[in-house]
């Protein structure tokens, strides 16, 4: 049997990434989605002065801002290019840091931003963006615009995780890894394509067969690594005689 790529990120990002994986691996793997988090928008928005710089560390934050009636035309900083595209699509004026939260903080500090920043974020975040900004002399407020509610694995996902065929897991956040491992243990050899070292560390409790960190903290790099781990999973099947 071919390996399974199990995508656990929230919808609709799970569906989008699944399509990209299928385009890369073709018949080389079964692609299965089973989000372990649901994004729940939480309002209302706070008062936002016209000179405020919005800060987004995910597309979920952008989507929540739009759903809550956030106005267009404001300048904003985003953690990466995908988030910047989402912000531009709703009429904001984004500047992308092109990497991770640490790079985002550095970019805002280096740009010498004097206006107050407002970080539109989820209830759970990775990194200490607000602390880094304050240490760099930037005034910042944080406002939670969505919650990440834990979900149970779908029965199909649980079945493949408890079979003997290798499972490739693209992992996009430490919280996703923690929620997944809390639903274990699992029997299948697990090969993890982690977006960051923090995400990789969070999945240690699952006792994965292999964990690799993407060369960049973005979806494209995770996709590249997922494709590589599918190839490795096929070799692993051959070595173990998995059927």
Anisotropy-based shape: elongated
Q: Name the helix and strand elements from N-terminus to C-terminus, one letter apiece.
A: EHEEEHEHEHEHEHEHEHEH
Secondary-structure-based class equals alpha/beta
Number of beta strands: 11
Distance between the termini: 6 Å
Overall number of domains: 2
Average pLDDT figure: 94
Radius of gyration: 19 Å
Q: Helical amount among residues, as a percent range?
A: 25-40%
% residues in beta strands = 15-25%
- Give the biggest beta sheet: 6 strands, mixed
- Name the CATH class of the largest domain: Alpha Beta
Number of helices: 9
Q: Going across the major beta sheet, what is the strand order?
A: 3-8-7-4-5-6
Q: If you consult CATH, what is the topology of the largest domain? A: Rossmann fold
Low-confidence parts lasting 5 or more residues at pLDDT below 50? none
Descriptors:
243 residues; alpha/beta; Rossmann fold; 5-stranded parallel beta sheet; 9 helices; 11 strands; 23% strand
């Amino acid at each position: 049997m071919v390996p399974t790529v199990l995508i656990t990120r929230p919808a609709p990002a799970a569906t989008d990434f699944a399509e990209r994986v299928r385009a890369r691996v073709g018949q080389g793997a079964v692609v299965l989605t089973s989000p372990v988090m649901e994004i729940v928008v939480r309002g209302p928005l706070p008062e936002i002065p016209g000179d405020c710089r919005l800060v987004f560390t995910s597309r979920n934050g952008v989507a929540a801002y739009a759903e809550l009636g956030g106005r267009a035309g404001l300048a904003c900083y985003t953690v990466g290019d995908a988030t910047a595209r989402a912000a531009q699509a709703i009429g904001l004026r984004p500047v992308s840091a092109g990497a991770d939260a640490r790079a985002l903080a550095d970019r805002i500090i280096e740009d010498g931003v004097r206006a107050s920043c407002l970080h539109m974020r989820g209830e759970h975040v990775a990194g200490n963006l607000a602390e880094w900004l304050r240490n760099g002399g930037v005034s910042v407020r944080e406002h939670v615009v969505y919650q990440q509610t834990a979900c149970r694995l779908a029965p199909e996902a649980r079945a493949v995780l408890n079979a003997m065929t290798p499972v490739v897991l693209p992992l996009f956040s430490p919280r996703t890894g923690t929620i997944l491992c809390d639903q274990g243990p699992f029997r299948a050899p697990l090969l993890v394509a982690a977006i960051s070292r923090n995400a990789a560390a969070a999945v240690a409790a699952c006792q994965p067969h292999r964990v690799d960190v993407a060369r960049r903290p973005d979806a494209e790099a995770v996709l590249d690594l997922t494709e590589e781990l599918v190839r490795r999973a096929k070799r692993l099947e051959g070595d173990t005689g998995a059927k």
